[in-house]
Amino acid sequence: MKLYFAPFACSLASHITLRELAVPFTLIRVNNQSKRTADGRDFYQINPKGYVAALELDDGTVLTEAPAILQYLADLHPESGLAPANGTLQRTALQAQLSFIGSELHAGMSPLFNDAIPDEVKAVFRERLGRRMAYMERVLAEHDYTCGEHFTVADAYLFTVLGWTDHLKVDLSAFPALERFRQRVATRPSVIAALRAEAESAPVA
Ligand SMILES: N[C@@H](CCC(=O)N[C@@H](CS)C(=O)NCC(=O)O)C(=O)O
Fold first, then answer.
1. pLDDT by residue (tens digit) across 33-46?
2. Residue 51 sits in the same domain as residue 115
């Protein structure tokens, strides 16, 4: 498998998951501005949507969209516990968290990266994001992870998007459980290795 990634972007969740599973994979860095890959290809030819993450399987199939990639990977090794079995209520709960993280937190933070959006408009997005973070704070005040007491792919995704809050100056001081969650997940060998590999990856023109 090949994971097309940009350092510390949402592709980090899939990267962490690949390392959790200890499956063989190749990392291919993408320049999200030029849309070129580290091996000199046009990224649009791999993912017509033009964004990471994209996971290329050994038969050439390309998977996109974080919740789909993460569940595909988890299902390769059900014994990992990274996702409950398909068809169970627990799986539906995981899908709800993946959807919430994707559409409320990840997409909720996206406007804050956009320099064309004025600060007063960003303030509206920040206020809304704060309310969404407050929900996750309540979940993590009761449980160590988003779906209970075990690490799942939803936690890899949540850890990834929480990682953007420092850069975006999203104030999480009112959310101590979120901070404890970040520290807990940051100690996982998969996370340490993924962060190091992305930091050390060579820039792409
Ligand atoms: N809905 C997509 C969103 C992916 C996404 O937002 N990717 C960002 C990085 S976190 C990106 O590559 N943006 C570059 C661009 O849109 O040009 C998913 O769930 O994978």
1. 999 999 999 999 99
2. no
